[in-house]
Each structure stands twice: as C-alpha cells, then as structure tokens.
Amino acid sequence: MKNTHKPIALTADQLFCYEDRGYMIVRNLFSSEEVEGLRNRFDEIGVAGTPIPGYWEPDLHGNGASDPLKRYPRVMMPHRYDELSMRTLLDSRIRLLLRVLLGEEPIAAQSMFYFKPPGARGQALHQDNFYLEVKPGTCVAAWLAIDPSLPENGGLSVVPGTHKMSIVCPEMAEDSESFTSHLVRPPDGVKPIPVNLRPGDVLFFNGSVIHGSAPNRTKDLWRRSFICHYMPKGTTQVSRWYFPLLDFDGNVVEYPISQGGGPCGEGFEPAVLS
Length: 274
Ligand SMILES: O=C(O)CCC(=O)C(=O)O
Description:
This protein is an alpha+beta fold. It has helices at residues 12-21, 32-48, 68-71, 83-89, 92-102, 129-132, and strands at 23-26, 75-76, 106-114, 123-126, 140-145, 156-158, 171-172, 182-183, 193-194, 202-206, 211-213, 225-232, 245-246, 252-253. Helices cover 19% and strands 20% of the residues.
C-alpha cells in the first residue's frame, strides 16, 4: 500500500509497557482529519443501513431501544469492501510499529468497526488468540479510538501481564453485559484496568492479553473504534476464519490452517472471530 509516513520512535516506557504488561499506547498516531474520515465513512454506512451480507446485517425494523447493537452491530472485515478501511488496515505507521513489537514483518488478518452506541452492551473479557489460533506465537491488536474511549462509554480495559498466560478455554459470559458469549476470568490478584484513549490514539496489545469492555452506560456518547488484528510473518498456523490474509503491499499470502484444537480440546469450534 502506498501510504508512507515518517518513522515513529517508541519511548523506553512504551516498549517496557509492551514487554512487561502486554500492551502499549501510541497517542495521536492518526490525525484528527484521518479520524474524522473514518467516522464519516462508517456513519454513512450506519445511517444508510444497507446490509453487507455476512459482514454487517443491522436490524432496521426493531426500535433498537432494548439492544442498540441490533441496529448498530459491529462491521466485520470492512477492508474487504471499503478502500479507506483497507488503507487503514495496511497503514505504514502501524506496519513500522508492529515490526518493532513483533521483531519481524506483520501480516494483516482482520479489521472491524465498532459503533458501540449509548446503551450498547460490552464485550466480556477474552483473549484474541483463542480465535485467531496464531501459532507458534500470537496475534497483535491495533485498536484505534475514533471517539474518546472511557469507562463510562464502555472503553476498553486490559489485564496487565496476562500476555504471559496461556490461552484458556472460556466460560459463558453474562449476556445482559456482553454481546459475545465467552468470558475469561483474570487470574487471582490481577484486575482489568481501563485504557483511556482520545480520538487518534492507538492501543497495541498482545493476543494473549485478557481484555474486554463494559456496556456503554452513557445517554449520548458513542464509542466508535477501528480494530485490526495482525500476526508475525513467520507464523506457521492460523485459523481459517481469517483467510485471505494480506501482506502490507495488499497481496494475499497463504498459510497453513491451525490444527489440533485449542484449549477447549478437539472439536470445539470457537464462535467465529474475536
Ligand atoms: O472494543 C471492544 O469493546 C472490544 C474489542 C475487542 O475485545 C476485540 O477486538 O478483541
């Protein structure tokens, strides 16, 4: 992809945070104009309400009051049909930062856009690599804030240090709080902490980090975000649900499908996509 940006120097604190706690924030990685472009693009999709079969299927007939996510579900894999989303997934700043974090070239697996309107449920604590099944290492997320992301509007929380854990088999989440059904409880002695982000900030986190979000309890603050998942080029297996995988020049790259089942054993098919 032909978007080239100046190299970004990470501070020792950022690198330490990623190594020690499994996540790192890069403030203002995207400009306010870029964020506005993404917000406008997805607002157009959201307001028009035209379904994108298999990727975004809003319920236009309910009143949305009991579950705002019926009208505004997350948009899956927008890079497959939206040019701005493809450019964002393959952004050269993200590429350079991921090279530092991974120590090798990254490969793009997934994009998503969350509207998370007022009243929307959250997403229970989970580990992304349970779904991506990247082996032998793990995946990495780049979570771009489009709106301020705060505890009150259902901002993301992470459990520091859990990138050192294995991937565990989830239990059932509380469906009044979470639109997804899997829950991974943090180990004794560690708790989720909120990551407060401003529009344009990007949170990078390791695919084993336990993370999630609470409902948006505000009356009027949306919490939109553009979320991407990547894996190291040297990956030897990955879940087939993320095919086709792309390099940062936009070429499709082939990888073997993950084998052997995950932590829930053989035959367990994780609910598709993180
Ligand atoms: O943004 C959220 O509320 C949750 C996103 C998330 O957990 C993920 O993309 O894996």
